[in-house]
Please model this.
Amino acid sequence: MAGAIGLRSTPKGQFGNRLLNYLVIRQLAHELDVGYFSHNPGDRGLIPGIHRLPFPPLRFRRTVYLERSDVEADGFLERARQHIARGEVIVPKPRLLANAYARFDFVDPSRLVRHRFRLCSHHQAVSDGQPPVVLHLRGKDFATWKEGAVLGEQYYRDALEHWEEQQANDFLVRICTDDLDHPALPGLRQFLRSQGRLMSPEGCTNPFVCDFAAMMAAPVVVSSPSTFAITAGLLGTSRAIHSRSWVDARIADGEVFWQKVRERSIRSYRVEAEV
Model:
């Protein structure tokens, strides 16, 4: 192998961040036509290949360590090809997240990455072959992450109204969240129950895996800004609705990913609307 690129340590953060790091490495390895490695033993049961150690070990190779800013800088691919031509191994520092992915969106990630996400038997039965619309609510640490990251009830209701206008048929709605104290949750549950649309979570045997599978397969995901929801969209077939005010704020901060969300220019991420 003339060169390789990969992560030597498991990226910090929750599952969405770890998966997004891996997707960036796989995209870069594909474009640079080199092997990859990725240290992440905890997620290998769900994502085959996410834990793949370098061979031979790094101590036997000429290795170039890079900061995230180096990877996201203009001209990175040309510099990377020069390292590879010298037989060097490229090791970016983790937290290669949405902005890095937006720069290196070369092929549909489903061509590169396998997964083992499946609906639980309960939700397979109640879906009856028609995947529900999914609302993804992310709270907890998002309350202190960035202003506006915890999205309100009205955003979700406006998104559902938009989707209802596009549909000829009725639809069920599944709420996916790991935060039972999310401020939008009580009102959304009451509203959806009153419409007879709320899909019950009772009986789900593995909410983490089942929620991700549901977001991959949904006709539309009313999304939080979470990488858990974003990576499900990248690997699945769903379309995403995002908060217009959130996208506005992130574009004002110069974030490439959200600019491309607005432009609908990430090839593997399908955006239905902003509301």
About this structure: The beta strands are 4-7, 35-38, 63-66, 89-92, 133-137, 173-177, 220-222, 239-242, 270-274. The radius of gyration is 20 Å. The mean pLDDT is 95. The CA atoms of residues 148 and 246 lie 7 Å apart.
